[in-house]
């Protein structure tokens, strides 16, 4: 449902991932993994496994740690929301590094996103463009995440809320909405003041009810010997 | 399924080991050696008999007897003779076993394990034990071992190998207490208990044993592994195969100790924990597997997966506890049991799905944690802190310190980081349980009204509702998103619609259980002879 970058995988990704699969603990592949992070940034692809592998190797040899690379990994991990990739990376990064300013900023950004405080997020992101702008596709990825969270929660929502969540206003907002109406089954009501999101399993949970009340066959099987 | 000594492993003896002439009375007559006596240079008769017989049974591939001696006699002799002292040095017993190289490595493995369990290992012993594991694994990896060893022993090797690695990392991290001489040694021994070395051995055992292919082929019925509990009844050896298998669980554990939960679960994925497998032939392995699996899922916010697996193992322990009382690992079993109840309490506080928990487990849980769970549901952070700290794995910092910097203790660093990140997750979910409890009372409620009930403003509530949705959704490995929510809702403009949560009580399970119980009682009555 959420944006899962990295779905399109050119030939070279395959080889690096193979490298990781074959040498998951080999410090020699560290430089390859570092340049692969740069490549993911440049080509807007993503591989959690490769990045975790790199963080693991840093964890084994802290002296080789490259802070700039780690920051890029973290930004990429934010873009993978709603998946838990950001936490997965943070679990592997030494605390003293996490106390540095850039890392605190990233943690704050993650916190705003995890708690759906989009307005605060965009304000904070605005103040830290230098960190985020080096990774192309950042804004779109977060907008994708915001739309994901909205559409599992709302059937209809005020246009203002939508605008705030994706940080778009005015004519650009009209364009975004028009695109969604034409391509993804959205609709507008009350002269465009209310956005109607398409129905899915999560914004009309009734659909999923009462499946739990059946008894699985293997439980019934237990008493069959008694019954015959 | 715990190890069942009655099954046929080709053993010819029915008598319990202790009843045989050479070990009559279960060593009760043995006098402990005098305190201060150097036990490493003296081989008591009973120890000589022990190694001679153990060696013979290993040569004869008599798994049943090996298991009896390994689980029973070794523990008893340790209790009676070497409670606070070392077993005789390997050089002292080697002549009695034809100086057999592999046997001596196995003996030393047990020797060091005994030191770790009963005494405080010295730095030198830590290094020697590492060397011994390297030698032992090298021999096994090169296919030079043609033995059939009990699963219990093979599991203990992997388990102890990782334990000693973890212990070394903890030991090294306490820099303040080190003498200059110890520091000098530590600087020199980068290779010893090196994390890459440890992981590579586990990886090598998995690869060389071809265990992943075996498990894969087994699905097509071409090979048998699980059906024979990993043993080889055609004159072959189970050692490499089963060590490879247990190394899968070993990798899960090491990754979790490093905070790498994703890689841990990925490493475990060749084993389906919901199917019978060799991992549940040894209780210690079964518990380790589920403990780390459940913990990793907890950290990944997959609470339902954790709850299900903890429930399953806790029920199993509840039902079989009495059979393990004599096991040398009984204390360990009890400790992990308690820890898993604490983890279950955490999961259920964050993700209340009491229906997933079986009646007996639920009763135990209430008895132990009813009050603490109540406090966690009220977002009492100190409670989460307490339970997490009690129940989490012993996290480690895998890299050696910089010995040229001021010497500090950093053995708590890894734990503190995981705790901190966990608590920040808890903080993000702070408002959720109160939303949950209000939603349960309504079928529809306006945003404004709920906000006033909760004493927050509308924007805050809207944000919290989004957070509720986000946090109750789990991303699976295939990228699909799934809701774990016990109370679900959607928002239509200004109105919250709550899904009908009054799921009718499930009588099915209840009746099935009682039909079974009733049937057992009737059978019991039928068997009873009336006077």
UniProtKB/TrEMBL annotation, chain A:
Molecular-function GO term, any one: ribosome binding
One GO CC annotation: eukaryotic 43S preinitiation complex
Coiled-coil segments: none
GO terms classed as biological process: formation of cytoplasmic translation initiation complex; regulation of translational initiation
Location(s) in or outside the cell: Cytoplasm
Domain CSN8/PSMD8/EIF3K: 68-196
Key words, A-Z: Cytoplasm, Initiation factor, Protein biosynthesis
Subunit structure: Component of the eukaryotic translation initiation factor 3 (eIF-3) complex.
Function statement: Component of the eukaryotic translation initiation factor 3 (eIF-3) complex, which is involved in protein synthesis of a specialized repertoire of mRNAs and, together with other initiation factors, stimulates binding of mRNA and methionyl-tRNAi to the 40S ribosome. The eIF-3 complex specifically targets and initiates translation of a subset of mRNAs involved in cell proliferation.
Similarity comment: family membership: Belongs to the eIF-3 subunit K family.
Protein's name in the database: Eukaryotic translation initiation factor 3 subunit K
From TrEMBL, chain B:
Location of the protein in the cell: Cytoplasm
Domain PCI: 309-505
Alphabetic keyword roster: Cytoplasm, Initiation factor, Protein biosynthesis
Domain of life of the organism encoding this protein: Eukaryota
Classification via Pfam families: Paf67
Single GO MF descriptor: translation initiation factor activity
GO process annotations (BP): formation of cytoplasmic translation initiation complex; translational initiation
GO cellular component, one term: eukaryotic 48S preinitiation complex
Main location: cytoplasm
Role, per record: Component of the eukaryotic translation initiation factor 3 (eIF-3) complex, which is involved in protein synthesis of a specialized repertoire of mRNAs and, together with other initiation factors, stimulates binding of mRNA and methionyl-tRNAi to the 40S ribosome. The eIF-3 complex specifically targets and initiates translation of a subset of mRNAs involved in cell proliferation.
Assembly mode: Component of the eukaryotic translation initiation factor 3 (eIF-3) complex.
Family affiliation: Belongs to the eIF-3 subunit L family.
Name assigned to this protein: Eukaryotic translation initiation factor 3 subunit L
Annotated source species: Physcomitrium patens
């Amino acid at each position: 449902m959420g944006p899962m970058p990295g779905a399109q995988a050119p030939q070279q990704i395959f080889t690096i991932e193979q490298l990781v699969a074959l040498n998951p603990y080999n410090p020699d592949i560290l430089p390859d993994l570092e340049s692969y992070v740069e490549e993911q940034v440049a080509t807007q692809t993503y591989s959690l496994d490769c990045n975790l592998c790199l963080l693991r190797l840093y964890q084994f040899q802290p002296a080789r740690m490259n802070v700039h690379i780690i920051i890029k990994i973290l930004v990429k991990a934010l873009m993978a929301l709603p998946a838990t990739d950001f936490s997965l990376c943070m679990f592997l990064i030494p605390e003293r590094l996490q106390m540095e300013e850039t890392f605190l900023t990233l943690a704050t950004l993650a916190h705003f996103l995890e708690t759906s405080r989009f307005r605060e997020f965009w304000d904070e992101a605005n103040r830290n463009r230098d960190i985020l702008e080096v990774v192309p596709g950042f804004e779109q990825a977060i907008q994708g995440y915001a739309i994901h969270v909205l559409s599992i929660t709302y059937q209809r929502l005020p246009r203002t809320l939508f605008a705030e969540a994706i940080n778009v206003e005015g004519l650009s907002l009209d364009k975004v909405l028009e695109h969604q109406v034409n391509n993804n089954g959205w609709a507008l009501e009350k002269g465009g003041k209310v956005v109607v999101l398409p129905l899915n399993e999560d914004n009309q949970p009734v659909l999923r009810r009462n499946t739990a009340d059946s008894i699985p066959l293997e439980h019934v099987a237990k008493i069959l010997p008694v019954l015959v | 399924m715990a190890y069942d000594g009655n099954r046929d492993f080709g053993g010819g003896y029915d008598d319990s080991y202790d009843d045989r002439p050479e070990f009559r009375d279960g060593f009760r007559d043995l006098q402990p050696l005098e305190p201060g006596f150097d036990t490493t240079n003296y081989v008591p008769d009973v120890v000589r008999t022990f190694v001679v017989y153990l060696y013979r049974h290993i040569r004869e591939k008599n798994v049943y007897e090996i298991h009896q001696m390994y689980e029973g006699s070794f523990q008893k002799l340790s209790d009676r003779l070497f409670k606070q002292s070392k077993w005789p040095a390997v050089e002292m017993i080697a002549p009695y076993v034809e100086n057999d190289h592999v046997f001596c490595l196995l003996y030393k493995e047990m020797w060091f394990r005994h030191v770790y369990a009963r005494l405080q290992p010295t730095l030198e012993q830590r290094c020697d034990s590492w060397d011994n594991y390297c030698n032992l694994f090298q021999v096994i990896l090169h296919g030079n071992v043609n033995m059939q060893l009990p699963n219990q022993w093979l599991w203990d090797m992997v388990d102890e190998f990782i334990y000693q690695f973890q212990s070394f990392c903890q030991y090294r991290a306490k820099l303040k207490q080190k003498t200059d001489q110890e520091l000098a040694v530590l600087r020199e021994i980068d290779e010893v208990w090196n994390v890459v070395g440890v992981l590579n051995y586990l990886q090598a055992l998995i690869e060389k044993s071809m265990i992943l292919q075996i498990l894969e082929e087994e699905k097509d019925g071409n090979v048998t592994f699980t059906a024979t509990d990993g043993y080889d009844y055609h004159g072959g050896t189970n050692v490499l195969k089963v060590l490879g298998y247990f190394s899968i669980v070993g990798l899960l554990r090491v990754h979790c100790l490093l905070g790498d939960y994703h890689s841990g679960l990925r490493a475990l994925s060749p084993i389906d924990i919901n199917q019978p497998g060799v991992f549940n032939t040894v209780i210690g392995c079964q518990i380790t597997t589920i403990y780390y699996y459940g913990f990793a899922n907890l950290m990944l916010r997959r609470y339902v997966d954790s709850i299900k697996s903890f429930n399953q193992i806790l029920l199993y322990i509840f039902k079989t506890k009495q059979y393990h009382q004599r096991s040398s690992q009984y204390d360990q079993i009890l400790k992990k049991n308690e820890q898993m109840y604490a983890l279950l309490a955490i999961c259920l506080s964050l993700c209340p799905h009491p229906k997933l928990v079986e009646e007996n487990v639920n009763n135990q849980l209430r008895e132990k944690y009813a009050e603490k769970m109540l406090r966690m549901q009220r977002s009492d952070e100190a409670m989460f802190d307490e339970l997490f700290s009690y129940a989490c794995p012993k996290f480690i910092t895998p890299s050696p310190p910089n010995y040229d910097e001021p010497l500090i203790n950093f053995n708590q660093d890894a734990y503190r980081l995981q705790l901190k990140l966990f608590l920040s997750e808890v903080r993000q979910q702070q408002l959720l349980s109160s939303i949950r409890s209000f939603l349960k009372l309504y079928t529809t409620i306006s945003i404004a009204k709920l906000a006033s009930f909760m004493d927050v403003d509308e924007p805050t509530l809207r944000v919290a509702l989004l957070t509720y949705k986000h946090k109750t959704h789990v991303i699976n490995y295939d990228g699909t998103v799934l809701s774990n929510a016990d109370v679900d809702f959607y928002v239509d403009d200004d109105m919250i619609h709550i899904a009908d949560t009054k799921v009718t009580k499930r009588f099915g399970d209840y009746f099935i259980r009682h039909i079974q119980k009733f049937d057992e009682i009737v059978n019991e009555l039928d068997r009873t002879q009336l006077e």
